[in-house]
DNA sequence: ATCCGGTTGTTAGCATACTAACATTATCGA
DNA sequence: TCGATAATGTTAGTATGCTAACAACCGGAT
């Protein structure tokens, strides 16, 4: 019987930190972020790129709506949008139909860069998944999606 | 031909944010953290639990060493250790052999809780992986480890 | 023995990510 | 129409996670 067997009947599973999904998710996220930041094509963080790409996809929308579409709470999306506005990548105008809202859209310069930003994002994904074979990449993304879509 | 086909010869792969590994890793991490925080067994964050479990595993060590063993840079591990000391979970003493170092160890009370902390960690991992079948869980952890272990 | 490079821990600054509380504005129901 | 409810955006506070700079200290090489 393997000394690392964690399925022995009647015995409690051993807690090995390096085998826990939360710990491994943190490591994988760290590696992805490092790959992203080491590819200096744009002065963007992964989160900022996600916001820009989503805004390009869905078009003009409110700040909270963009937050929901990118899985950022209201406090986080505010900071992200503030920094994107400061860089001139996103512009705003008041919503004429709802005085609570500010509508966000990409600046013309950003609009023109969208294709390059997409290409950059694909490169990052390829580098991140490089340790896996093509079949493994497909499987991994499918399972990761199952873990993310719940709730 | 499928309209979402991203492998058509001669065409550039489409950039779909929801299919990018970085975005999905962020979603999965968010879900894991939410599961963790909604299980109020201990007043700990995932990072703090990792530090405690690792310290229990490797025994008394320096702050930077614990950081390396838990994938936290020197600034991050400092904050984590400060908070664990403030809660009385970790105690320190100067290293008699190296005046730069402070040696960390678990407080006796924490030592006594380690088995419960392990059990709690296993519950969190089970809940996080619940959307997958047993076979999928094994595969997912194997691939996630491959993505994390790369230098 | 001294100098030099490396290690340890601290600090400051920035960027997510979360909760909670708040004022303002919309909307729906009675 | 009015009153309760909900949505929007802001602010404050806390906790990672990163870089960069710094002082103090250790070890080895000359």
Verbal overview:
Chain A is mostly helical and 151 residues long. Chain A has a single domain, classed as Winged helix-like DNA-binding domain superfamily/Winged helix DNA-binding domain (Arc Repressor Mutant, subunit A), CATH 1.10.10. A three-stranded antiparallel beta sheet of chain A has the order 1-3-2. In chain A, helix 1 crosses helix 5. Chain A is globular and about 65 Å long. The relative contact order of chain A is 0.11. The N terminus of chain A is likely disordered. Chains A and B meet through helix 1, helix 2, helix 5 and helix 6 of A and helix 1, helix 2, helix 5 and helix 6 of B. Chain A binds a DNA duplex (30 and 30 nucleotides) through helix 1, helix 2 and helix 4.
Global morphology of chain A:
globular
Mind summarizing the main beta sheet of chain A?
3 strands, antiparallel
Count of separate structural domains of chain A: 1
Seen as an oligomer or otherwise, the chain set is homodimer
**Which percent range describes the beta-strand content of chain A?**
5-15%
Number of distinct helices of chain A: 6
In the CATH scheme, the class of chain A would be: Mainly Alpha
| Level-2 CATH architecture of chain A | Orthogonal Bundle
The number of distinct β-strands of chain A equals 3
Largest interchain contact: A-B, 53 and 53 residues
Sequence stretches where pLDDT stays below 50 over 5 or more residues of chain A: 1-8
CATH topology of chain A, by name, is Arc Repressor Mutant, subunit A
State the strand order across the main sheet of chain A: 1-3-2
Mean pLDDT of chain A: 92
What is the straight-line distance between the termini of chain A?
39 Å
C-alpha-based Rg of chain A, rounded: 20 Å
Q: Spell out the helices and strands of chain A N to C.
A: HHEHHEEHH
């Amino acid at each position: 019987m393997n000394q690392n067997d964690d399925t022995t009947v009647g015995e409690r599973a051993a807690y090995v930190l390096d085998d826990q999904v939360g710990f491994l998710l943190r490591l994988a996220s760290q590696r992805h972020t490092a790959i992203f930041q080491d590819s200096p094509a744009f002065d963007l963080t992964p989160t900022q790129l996600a916001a820009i790409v989503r805004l390009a996809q869905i078009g003009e929308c409110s700040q909270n709506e963009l937050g929901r579409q990118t899985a950022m709470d209201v406090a986080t999306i505010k900071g992200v949008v503030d920094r994107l506005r400061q860089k001139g990548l996103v512009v705003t105008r008041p919503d004429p139909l709802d005085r609570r809202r500010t509508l966000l859209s990409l600046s013309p310069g950003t609009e023109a860069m969208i294709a390059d930003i997409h290409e950059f994002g694909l490169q990052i994904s390829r580098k991140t998944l490089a340790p896996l074979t093509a079949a493994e990449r497909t499987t991994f993304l499918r399972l990761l999606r199952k873990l993310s879509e719940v709730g």
